[in-house]
Specification:
The chain is built from 31 helices and no strands. It has about 525 residues and is an all-alpha fold. The protein starts with a helix and ends with a helix.
Length: about 525
């Protein structure tokens, strides 16, 4: 989202630079404002183009030219292609010798039929000159324009050109119209495969998904290449397409051990789970025990299912891993708790003294899953554990019973000399417990060095119901006034005055708050302060 906002802002800047200086060279402005300088050249001289920047450029030029006050006009071809008047846009497209191809693509989805038809003819002529790099550069913007009412045409033409049904790159005497016969500018199958291969490596998710769908429809990739694409892909949607295709290919033909091993080494858990399920068809169900300690719960569940199908017992395998305390791992403990009965809680409790913090945290998680958490006396010292994950899990175990915990002990753990994760866990329990102790800790932690803890404490202070705390008898008016004064960096002056009036604080009840409000830098604040003093008198 941040990059999209940056692209839109740079598109607006490019439009303003072009309209304010009509003699601006658009190629230089586009290179500075609309192109990423750190990207690699794909093919030829075309760089990676950002769709949102060009769409924002088109909209900003139209807005600047049609605003009621000081409209900006330019005779540059780029500005005329984005003009609010459809006749101007159509006349600019008539000069098709060297128009910006991305702006021509935007005009292919124009709301004026005459502009659309002319832009589509011009686009076909431009693309036919250099098909491969043009298709690579046009695809992201075409997919982005596909959301518009008339934007499906470009997407359909791209699919047709890259799938080989017919070519958008037609002969020169039929520019922009689909051809039914072979033409000199048609892409060969190898060229289409090269374009799709480059599109699958682009950083834009819609482009990668589009290229993956066309690649699978083409059917050129073998089962090993499909597995490799699935194992190296980061996008879950694209990864699922390649994974399903690889499994379908192995179901139709004989299982491939290399493809199965590639799936087992995938980055996304869904791919590894597919590889585990493929072990059964490949006759390698005995390898399921290797994946019982996978970091993903989905993969562990598939491994347990496969082990049961092969006649094994996952519970006994996990039990054997936990007996060896020196080689027990975090995910072995997690997997054991996923299939163990509640009677095995003492075995997990013994791991609370394990030297590895990850194992101790996994044991606490398992005890919480089995609803067999230790008593408060055993959990409270774990808030001071050297491992942040252990302190976090201990706080989660204590959260349901936070009301019966000692607030002074929790408040002591929020002191600046404690570890950051200890302060976080203690403050989480104080917030769950509520009361004046939570407010005191929030005011103190609103200046904590840790930014996350400082933000949570500030939110607690700004949303606190001070009047309810007073009515419940949890604190005196003077103490609440002092806490309000210490929260001056979080609450505006008018909010401080409002809470002071709601709490019934009189003059001289809290010297800190009196001094803070009387030092207001605004004359209006001083006037209000004097009028309030007159009312109190």
């Amino acid at each position: 989202m941040r990059l999209i906002r940056q692209d839109i802002g740079q598109g607006h800047d490019a439009a303003l630079a072009l309209m304010q200086r009509p003699d601006t060279n658009m190629s230089d402005a586009a290179r500075v404002l609309l192109l990423r300088p750190d990207t690699e050249v794909f093919t030829g001289r075309l760089l990676w183009h950002r769709p949102d920047a060009w769409i924002a450029f088109d909209e900003e030029v139209r807005r600047l030219a049609s605003r009621p006050y000081e409209p900006l006009r330019s005779n540059r071809l780029e500005a005329r292609l984005c003009d609010p008047d459809g006749r101007v846009r159509a006349s600019a497209l008539a000069l098709w010798r060297n128009p910006p191809v991305l702006l021509v693509l935007i005009r292919c989805a124009d709301r004026v039929p005459a502009v659309r038809e002319r832009a589509r003819r011009v686009l076909g002529r431009i693309v036919a000159k250099d098909p491969e790099p043009m298709l690579i550069a046009l695809t992201p913007l075409a997919l982005r324009l596909g959301r518009r009412e008339h934007g499906a045409w470009a997407v359909g033409q791209l699919e047709a050109a890259l799938s080989g049904r017919y070519s958008l790159l037609t002969a020169w005497w039929r520019p922009g119209r689909p051809s039914t016969t072979w033409s000199w500018s048609s892409l060969t199958r190898e060229q289409r495969a090269g374009v799709l291969d480059q599109l699958r490596r682009t950083p834009a998710l819609p482009t990668r998904q589009f290229a993956a769908r066309l690649t699978l429809a083409d059917g050129r990739l073998g089962v090993r290449e499909l597995a490799r694409q699935a194992a190296t892909e980061h996008d879950p949607s694209t990864c699922r397409m390649f994974t399903d295709a690889a499994l379908a290919a192995m179901a139709a033909d004989a299982p491939d051990d290399e493809a199965v091993d590639t799936l087992l080494g995938g980055r996304i858990p869904m791919v590894r789970a597919a590889g585990v399920t493929a072990l059964r068809r490949a006759g390698r169900a005995a390898e399921a025990s290797r994946h019982l300690t996978d970091p993903s719960g989905l993969v562990r569940a598939c491994a347990r299912w496969l082990l049961r199908q092969d006649g094994g017992d996952p519970y006994m395998h996990y039990l054997g891993l936990l007996v060896d305390a020196e080689h027990v791992s975090r995910y072995a403990v997690t997997g054991f708790s996923e299939c163990a009965p509640r009677t095995d809680a003492p075995l997990l409790s013994e791991l609370l003294d394990h030297p590895a913090g990850a194992v101790r945290a996994a044991a606490l998680t398992g005890l919480r899953r089995l609803d067999a958490t230790p008593d408060d006396a055993a959990l409270l010292p774990l808030l001071d554990d050297s491992s942040a994950s252990v302190a976090r899990e201990a706080a989660l175990c204590l959260r349901p019973v936070a009301g019966r915990l000692d607030p002074e002990g929790l408040a002591a753990r929020t002191a600046p000399d404690r570890r950051v994760h200890t302060r976080r866990a203690a403050f989480r329990l104080l917030r769950a417990r509520g009361g004046i102790a939570a407010l005191r800790a929030a005011v103190a932690l609103s200046a904590d060095p840790d930014p996350c803890l400082r933000r949570v404490a500030a939110d607690t202070v700004t949303t606190w119901d001070w009047l309810h705390t007073l009515q419940e008898g949890q604190a005196e008016r003077a103490e609440l006034g002092a806490l309000l004064a210490r929260s001056a960096h979080l609450l505006p002056v008018h909010t401080l005055r409002w809470w002071r009036a709601r709490l019934g604080l009189q003059e001289n009840d809290c010297a800190e708050l009196d001094a803070l409000l009387t030092r207001s830098p605004h004359n209006e604040d001083r006037r209000l302060w004097r009028s309030r003093r007159g009312l109190w008198a």
